[in-house]
Amino acid sequence: MYGPDITTRADRVCSAGAGRHVRLCTACPGGTRRVRRSAEPPVSLHITRSSGDSVQAEYRLARPTRALHFAPPLDGYRARDWKSLPGEFRWVREGDGERIERTDGKPFARLSLDIPVRYSALEKAYAPFSPFSDGGVLVYSGHFQACPALPCKGTEPLAVSIAAEGETIGVGGKRSANTAAFVSREEGTNVYIGSAQPVPTSGFLAIVDPALQPVLRDHLLESLPQSMRDFAAIYGPLSITPELYVSLDPKPPSGTSLSSQGGTLPGQVFIHLYGDGWRKPIRLGDVVWLDWFFAHEAAHFFQRAGTNDVIGPDSQAWIHEGGADAMAALVMRGRSDTERSYVTRRIAEARKACAAGLAEVALNAASRAGKFDLHYQCGMLIALAIDADVRRGSGGARSLHDVNRRFFATVRAGTPWNGRSFLNAARRTGLSAPTLATITAITSQKLADPARQIDTMLRQAGMDPAAP
Is pLDDT at 18 greater than 80 in this prediction? Predict the structure, then answer.
């Protein structure tokens, strides 16, 4: 049964005196048995959905506190949308996070909030709500995780209960009617609330917005499974049946044509489509980037599976984000001419963007400087250079996939997920010394002439910088 990680222990303790939760203990001569309960969670959350336009969220604290702390600040989203009684509470920015506190400074044990259910595009963060056109919604639990005291990482466990009368709630691979309870941990999870029935597809359980054009719906239901099959043939099948969520915004923002946001969480891949263009006739050739998205996200499943769900920090994201883009490029090259042409264009664009970005900041500082996309662009070029170099040195017997398998195995064995470990795995798989030296410079220092060094890396690996 999926529920809050709150247990009641009935340890048999012989005691000569009475106390709280005391029962007669026939096994303890002349004594009693004290039933001890595990401590209550410091914070729990109770979400009620009574209408399609908003949810009511109530935080309950085991002990009164003067502030509830959240991280990260999400561009001020909570302060804009999470409404308490007027004048009773206020939001305050603190370091890399924020807190909510009573305006009179007094402690509190409960906090009630009214939150509109609408899509909000947040930089470097998943949307808190992804509405479906039929009234369903995907709720991301990670943004609700909170702490009654500092320090607060925003990944602390949170006991969550949800009430949605007349609707189905899907969380953690389980579906239940009207109510559900679970513990949101680490980066959180998406919770589905609605009436749609999942569609079993090749290796997936999918909930796809019913308003999506049939030609696009059918294509999406095949695109992700195709990438999963491609990677399973290389890395072995997954031990889980992931969930796929595709939502279509019922109230698309004006001036947006074909916009989207999505990603992966443990056991889930999701994409939210918003913009007027999704309701107009679409040619599949115009949305090849969706196939790239699904191949990239499928790659993340196999990265997670290979490392027992260990992924490195943002400062090292060129390994997993750029690596996932490279994995997508490699499998899509083996498909149609349209997809091969798209891959070639993505690589050319990445070469220009990486060179321009590294002229301003070192790759290992890109996240702190607000240039996270460099991890995708530069990381893909690095991974594809490794692939080309290793293939050339082994006569085609080895590739990036062999590097990945070796790296995943070292991470499972306890080696840190970082650039040194990854490049050491590449070296042991056959990466040449010149290419290794150039990649080490690109990933670890500020470059005087990044365009030249990127082209040097590609040439050393046997790639043509002008037509990768």
Answer: no
